[in-house]
Design a protein that fits this description.
Elements (H helix, E strand, L loop, with lengths): L6 E6 L5 H13 L3 E6 L9 H8 L10 H6 L2 H7 L2 E7 L1 H8 L6 H8 L4 E5 L3 H5 L1 H12 L3 E2 L3 E4 L5 E5 L3 H12 L8 E6 L4 E2 L5 E2 L6 H12 L3 E6 L11 E4 L3 H11 L5 E4 L6 E3 L18 E3 L3 H6 L6 E8 L3 H11 L4 E6 L11 E8 L2 E9 H20 L5
Parallel strand pairs: 1-2, 1-3, 3-4, 4-5, 8-11, 8-13, 11-12, 13-16, 16-17
Antiparallel strand pairs: 6-7, 9-10, 14-15, 17-18, 18-19
Helix pairs in contact: 1-2, 1-9, 4-6, 5-8, 10-14
The structure holds cytidine-5'-monophosphate.
Cytidine-5'-monophosphate binds next to helix 12 and strand 16.
């Protein structure tokens, strides 16, 4: 779905068009978004919070000083949670307060406290829209990079005709979708590895690991969403290929190495999420190994390091690796980034208590030369999108090209 795992904060202020926000909430939820509605007190006079609660499956927030809501998710947390804030409808009063930097109710406070983009969909009488004070506020908001969606012109609830109508829900929904389809990696050729490798002992047995491939598939999907051409070299996993991704299936580390080396040359970006076996049996028996003595010794030899080999290429792609550790996460990850000579490394703790390998959630510490950032626990698609945003900043700086 288009908006899977997107966090939408939908602000509803007190105007007759508030009923259209219910349809917008429905469309957003249907497209896979998580929608948190925040209403001003005046908005609750037009539409009952219960309507939005039923549509979104979340309690509606209306009050800055509601201790129950603050305990569940405080307003600063909520401001951080949002990927996009959409205020629809936005009244003349709300627009004036927002432009004035006020934080005198929950919604204005959230708009002030969030780093996420804020989009405002005005809805008011045409004379109020034309009012110079409103027009000044709108100009101010545009200067602050607030997105102004609308208004439409036409017949108004009060009988007037002119600009001031709220955009239809379908139109606002499309603007939300377009906002997320901005294409950070438009035209970039990306190669991603994912999943475990299986190192054959005989025709029926192998040495493997617990990697599910989820993180790599999420990265492939997130890159595709951002406009990249994505080839995914996948070890043995039971994951559906994101539509639009070219998938190459392999079993062993040697096969993965070969598949990557054959395809990497024209690529601009290489993301190695695969949990590649470090060693493989020196000999893979052609027939099933039979039980015999009390002990069985298997000689293992080192596999090639795919990521390090790609990083060593002259004019190679921008390289991003992963490091799964059970201890000393930051130190080992940094060592790995330096020894493999890669541009960026995303490290996570694995073990009984952590997210990681088989889990649908993960948390990452990301390192590059001279910097680092923590990406807190989140589902893997969400985390992949955050990592990709971070990657894009460094990718364009390193390759000397422009972010489109
Ligand atoms: O050295 P370590 O296996 O911990 O490094 C992890 C990173 O290196 C991951 O990005 C993994 O995909 C990559 N790697 C590789 N080929 C190997 C071993 C690891 O590409 N043989």
């Amino acid at each position: 779905m288009k908006l899977t795992s997107r966090h939408l904060l939908l602000g509803v202020t007190g105007g007759i068009a508030a009923y259209k926000a219910a349809e917008l909430a429905r469309l957003l939820v249907k497209a896979g978004a998580e929608v948190q509605v925040v209403m001003t007190q005046a908005a609750t006079r037009f539409v009952a919070p219960l309507t939005f609660e039923a549509l979104t499956g979340r309690p509606v927030y209306t009050d800055l000083f509601d201790s129950a809501h603050e305990a569940a998710m405080g307003h600063i947390e909520l401001a951080r949670w949002a990927d996009l804030v959409v205020v629809a409808p936005a009244t003349a009063d709300f627009i004036a307060r927002l432009a004035g930097g006020r934080a005198d109710d929950l919604l204005t406070t959230l708009c002030a406290a969030t780093k996420a983009p804020v989009a405002v969909a005005p809805a008011m009488n045409q004379q109020m829209w034309a009012n110079p004070a409103t027009q000044e506020s709108v100009k101010t908001l545009k200067r602050f990079q607030t997105l102004i969606w609308g208004p439409a012109a036409g017949e108004q609830a009060c009988g007037d005709v002119g600009p001031g109508r709220l955009f239809e829900a379908a139109q606002l929904f499309q603007l939300v979708c377009d906002h997320f389809a901005k294409g950070l990696f438009s035209g970039v050729r990306a190669l991603v590895t994912a999943g475990p490798t299986h190192e054959a002992l005989d025709p029926v047995r192998f040495i493997g690991n617990r990697s599910s491939g989820r993180m790599g598939f999420a990265i492939a999907r997130a890159l595709l969403e951002e406009g990249a051409q994505v080839t995914l070299v996948a070890g043995p996993v039971s994951m559906k290929t994101p539509r639009g991704v070219t998938r190459v299936d392999v079993e062993s580390a040697l096969q993965m190495h070969e598949a990557v080396m054959q395809r990497v040359t024209p690529c601009d970006l290489f993301v190695a999420t695969a949990a590649v076996a470090d060693y493989r049996p020196q000999k893979s028996a052609t027939e099933k190994i039979k039980k015999s003595g009390e002990q069985l010794t298997i000689e293992l030899i080192r596999n090639p390091d795919i990521l390090a080999d790609v990083a060593a290429l002259e004019d190679g792609p921008y390289t991003v690796g992963f490091a799964a550790e059970t201890e000393c996460l930051d130190e080992y990850a940094q060592q790995k980034r330096i020894s493999k000579r890669i541009d960026m490394i995303a490290a996570n703790l694995v073990g009984a208590e952590e997210g990681g390998f088989e889990s649908s959630e993960n948390a990452l510490s990301v390192f590059w030369e001279g910097g680092q950032q923590q990406l807190p626990l989140a589902d893997k698609l969400r985390l992949a999108r955050q990592l990709i945003t971070l990657m894009s900043e460094h990718f364009y700086a390193r390759t000397g090209t422009e972010n489109p």
